[in-house]
What we know:
The structure holds 2 protein chains of 2 kinds. In chain A, 75% of the residues lie in helices and 0% in strands. Chain A is mainly α. In chain A, helix 8 (147-157) crosses helix 10 (175-203). The longest helix of chain A has 34 residues, at 237-270. In chain B, strand 1 (37-38) and strand 2 form a beta hairpin.
Amino acid sequence: MSNKKNALWHLPLIIIGIIALLPVIFMISNSFKTLQESYQSILSVIPNKPTIDNYTTLNHQVNLVRLVWNTFFMATLVTVGKLFTGLLAAYAFRYYQFKHKNLIYLLFVATIFVPFTIVMIPNYLVIAKLNLLNSVIGVALPQLCDATGIMIFLKTMEKIPGSLFDSLKIDNIPNRRIFFNIVLPILKPSIISVGAMFFINSWNEYVWPTLILKDKSSFTLPLALQNYISSEGGTNFPLAMALSSIMIVVPLIIYLIFQRYILNSISNSGLK
Amino acid sequence: MHNNKKILPFLYLMPTGILLTIFMIIPIIYTFYLSFFDWNLIAPTKDFVGMRNYIEVFTDPVNQKVLMNTFFYIILLLVLNFIVPYVISLVVKFFIKRMQGAYKIIFFIPSLFSLVVGAMIFSWLLNPVSGPVAFLFRESGFVLPNWTNSGGLAIIVICLITNWKVFGYNFILLLTGLGSIPKNIVDATTVDRIPKWRMIWNIVLPMNKSIAIYVLILTIVQGLQYVFTPINVITTGGPYYGSSNVLYHTYLNAFVLYKTGNASALAITTFLIFLVLLYLEIKFVEGRSRYE
């Protein structure tokens, strides 16, 4: 009786799982079909005559190495920047007493509630003034800090007892050593997971890059993909699916390696 | 030494502080300033127009439509990205005994992928003329409505695409919240033979309130920004602004129509809506001052 009831509860969960995974399977499978086959049987999972033609065609039409490099470079800049500024800020909040600490912390949290539309015009003008239009550096520059990172690092640092820190201070151990020898090793899992999420989000970023990157040679993967939906690719679905498949490889590998860390850190970001 | 200790924390906060000042605080002030002018982003002069841009936000029929759409988006996002994952997280926590880990891992996978990918796949699958879903509908004697011709239906499709991406993330956040509820409380209700739904309603939901409100707020603030991508990829706000929301319309005014003043006034209006949500966050989630 109880077992049957249990199985019934699994039904909606399995359906959700299928909805989550199906588009991905659909995408990968169509990227190995010919245009004709994808028209005739778009839903079949295993292609009749698997072909890598779409990938080679893609390689002729766009500079894949350049696209991947642009995306990788941008995501790395953003990730390193956010980790660096976030770790320093969290360290200050955790181990120092200073004026208006609470207010400054709330100000940082408040940045999550700033819609990108309110900063996009001035930031666009600044990036244009700096001559960084069509450069991934221009995309990365305004996003080198992130309140979520500070929140998660702070949460992890709170697990290190303050008394430990105080005794190190009394022994006159320099800050640099406390930070690198004690705080960083303890924070390692958080740094890995937060870094992975920063990287994946930046890898997929779309809105802000469309404003800054207009020249095709400066495109990142999402922008190139968008091009395939409208003009160039026209109705060549398998081609677009091939580019999508290339695009998801990196986030997928990062997730498969760091899955446990990533899921844990999301949990921490919400807990107060 | 003493002085050093006073300066150090500010030194550590400086990188974040400088970046926020240049790329957030000053821009907010500048956008506020621009909202009182008529400008086209390029011309050397700006014409002062007072409150006209703000009056237009609420009186212009297109803006009114977009504001109504935004409201519709918020309702749909709340149902799809907050209530549904919440219900599912309750099911996973209290009604099944196995496979919790597997569901977590699988549900999370779509949030790794770009919304451009999601928008493309779903607009293809749901294509009202040539898509496979439309085909299945025809086979079984139904007609898939042409959702690209109707603002309301387009909004629903756009929200479903966003839901595909965000669901797993919100599900895990909410599930973690449920995990922090002491086990003995849950066990006690089982011993006392209190029905599960009552236990959930009377004990679990109130105890999980702060994280639930956090996810609820996040759903609105991030959701309205997330839908930007499928709007831009699939409908570009159409038909006749029918699927546009206040954020997309701001972008359209700023970078397509070059009506910088109107865009700024719309952005400030959005910010005011978000500030109300920030107030709720401080009141219910951040709690009383952590660092006093």
